[in-house]
Design goal:
mainly alpha; single chain; 9 helices; 2 domains; two-stranded parallel sheet; 266 residues
Amino acid sequence: MPYLKDRSEFDSEAEANNYLRAVMLFPDPEGAEMRKAYCAKFIKEFLVKTQTEMDEIEERYHNQEIPYEVAERYSKLNFAYLNLLIPKFQLLGGFSLPQVESDVSRLNWDGILASAVLRLMLRCHEHHKDLCTLNKVQEAIKEQLLVTKHEVKGLTNINRAWKIYKSVSHLWLADLLLCSGKVSRYPTYDQVLALSEAFRIPATEILIAPRGKKEKPLLDEDFVWRPKTERNFDNLRLPPLTNIIGPLSDNELGFFPAPKRPNKES
């Protein structure tokens, strides 16, 4: 069972959120090296930025644009950052790690698709049980994407995205909803974890029956990412779930395939 680190294991909110993004982009057990590489990439970029700032401060001091006291204060601060980040970079593997593709837009899109499947399954299970199947939900998402001019190759993209990202689909859904601006443009690590738990727990109780196979949970506890320790998130500001997994509108119901009518006997 994959566990997420506690917020206390990170030195900053930015570092925690970057780790969370690495998990969301590379959730498979085989993706451990890519997760480390993604985190190392973040630290490397910060190291380069810090070194650039140090060079600029030194140049401004030599040009007598700032006094010695200011230059010294900034230098001490930046040296502290470097002394904190360099060991982290080396611990992750540094330059020996695989390269992370610079454009992760496709991975982001797959994560978004998986979150759409999860949200619609939760809504259907709560309010429209007859529509609560993966095939029907994925078909509805495909139709909705076609209306919004997104390029979709049948159900292939949606089904592939779900298979790859379902173990973190609750994290994608929580992050997207929190980033929508209704709660905060910059949600905290704990906010994402807290809201994701509100989706993960009921999703593990939804049973689906793929064709010719026995029933299984929508999200399998053995493979879904979750907090390492039980936490009390009651003090965090979160959006009401009734607005997130409420009933479908008539317009949304129109994206589902029409029920098949039995053939009339001749």
